[in-house]
Amino acid sequence: MIGGSLGLDLRAAGYGVLGVSRQQATCDRALARGVADSASLELASLAGADVIILCTPLHVLGQTVVQLRPHLRPETVLTDVGSVKGPIVAEIAPLWPNFVGGHPMAGTADQGIEAALSNLFQGRPYVLTPTAQTPELAVERVWAIALALGALPHRCTPEEHDRAVAWISHLPVMVSTSLFQACRQEPSPEVRRLAQQLASSGFRDTSRVGGGNPELGQLMARYNREALLTSLGAYRRSLDQLIAQIEGEDWPGIAQTLAQGQGDRPLFL
Amino acid sequence: MIGGSLGLDLRAAGYGVLGVSRQQATCDRALARGVADSASLELASLAGADVIILCTPLHVLGQTVVQLRPHLRPETVLTDVGSVKGPIVAEIAPLWPNFVGGHPMAGTADQGIEAALSNLFQGRPYVLTPTAQTPELAVERVWAIALALGALPHRCTPEEHDRAVAWISHLPVMVSTSLFQACRQEPSPEVRRLAQQLASSGFRDTSRVGGGNPELGQLMARYNREALLTSLGAYRRSLDQLIAQIEGEDWPGIAQTLAQGQGDRPLFL
């Protein structure tokens, strides 16, 4: 989905796009949809590429780079699109010095080449996470790609990226899914059914990311475990404080907590 | 906002609507917008009403009924639109036996007569919470009004209503606002700013109800304190379990928790 969307926009921006997939059907669809100029099952077909954007799942990035490496010229720039950067950069940078960690922050709930969309990255953040060892020229090449997509490039360390996305992406998933686990604890079947019947936009929005793809959520927790646990610890302290305010009937305190939320929210929008 | 919207739809359905407000300007706007057939500052103007729908804030409902009572015929049915029912029914039913607790579950973030909308209740739940002492005829009259609005009437006890809305309305507000308090604990200003820049639809949706009107949120907590604390306790247990799963690297367990959320969510939509 991300790879196909990148192909659509980069071709539109004048880049030549070579696609590689493990499945011939995906190659065929990529050509039919205009996602790539050519498409192949062979990693060797990328030997002449200037930049390679790895769009595999997180857990097969390393093995992909090991397979790809024998075919590449040293000046080829590698980048990825993974949603966690610390462990990825730690794994790939030693394999390929010209690697720049990347995270274009866009997507939909759909997957696969058929879900590819034009202009998906327009106005969206595109985070690059070079280390002190990453060649500046490599960063510049990927930065130029982000600009060609109409995205808003950001630059930070892998650790800063992972802490930031723990707050605004991974923590909300865990907070949201826990709503369902909590509702399961209602002992009365009548009240449970009534709650389901009465749920409206407030519950729908708050529970949306917690009701998403379980595999993606589990991978977030796995790859960003440390930063996520830090965020969850802070969240639990905040929740405990609010519970203590309600138990203690500290109504001005609760109003102040809620007013801070109302004041903070525009900073994130 | 709720009173004005009820007026628009009930007039359209053929009911005669008498409006009462404490402000002449509101009466004038009500007539100008076609919200009522007549509008007055005087509670005595409601002496001939068959049904009176009290749309004041929760904390002045009781005193409004005390002021209204001398003007009414015993057969007049009173109902309200408050978002909590247990304490309201306990307060009003002894003052007026022909009272039926009501909660039309619709609204927007806007307030006041200018925010009144036609068809606001169409397809939305309208909960009635009679007690064993409530006359059945009174329930039938308010039920008919809910049907005339195109709403979906539900009937349950005040306690069942309050437990159900604690799960799907009040708990989400507290869960959502705690996200902002948690993010405030990030020690690095750079990471805090990056998180704000990277926040997108996931954070926006999960944080929406927590960034709403603080006064409304505080009243929810105040009037539905007991049911909300029960829901918050269950929520904290669920969150603690998820944190323990991540700490213990129980990836199959986390995937199962997330899959349950994905499976439960359609029950609430």
The number of E-state strands of chain A comes to: 8
Uncertain residue ranges of chain A:
none
What's the overall geometry of chain A? elongated
Helix content of chain A: 40-55%
Note the main sheet of chain A.
3 strands, parallel
Distance between the termini of chain A: 25 Å
Q: What's the overall average pLDDT of chain A, rounded?
A: 96
CATH homologous superfamily label of the largest domain in chain A:
NAD(P)-binding Rossmann-like Domain
Describe the fold and architecture.
2 copies of one chain form a homodimer. Chain A has 269 residues and is mainly α. The first copy, chain A, folds into 2 domains: 2-156, 3-Layer(aba) Sandwich (Rossmann fold); 161-268, 6-phosphogluconate dehydrogenase C-terminal like domain (6-phosphogluconate dehydrogenase C-terminal fold). Chain A has 11 helices and 8 strands. In chain A, the strands form 3 sheets. Chain A has a 3-stranded parallel sheet with strand order 3-4-5, with helices on one face. The longest helix of chain A is centred in the middle third of the chain and has 26 residues, at 158-183. Chain A is elongated, with a radius of gyration of 22 Å. The interface between A and B is large, with 92 and 93 residues.
Question: Can you summarize this structure?
Answer:
The structure is a homodimer of 269-residue chains. Chain A has 269 residues and is mainly α. Chain A has helices spanning 2-12, 24-33, 61-68, 86-92, 136-148, 158-183, 189-198, 201-207, 214-223, 225-247, 251-264; strands at residues 18-20, 38-40, 51-54, 77-80, 99-100, 102-104, 125-128, 152-155.
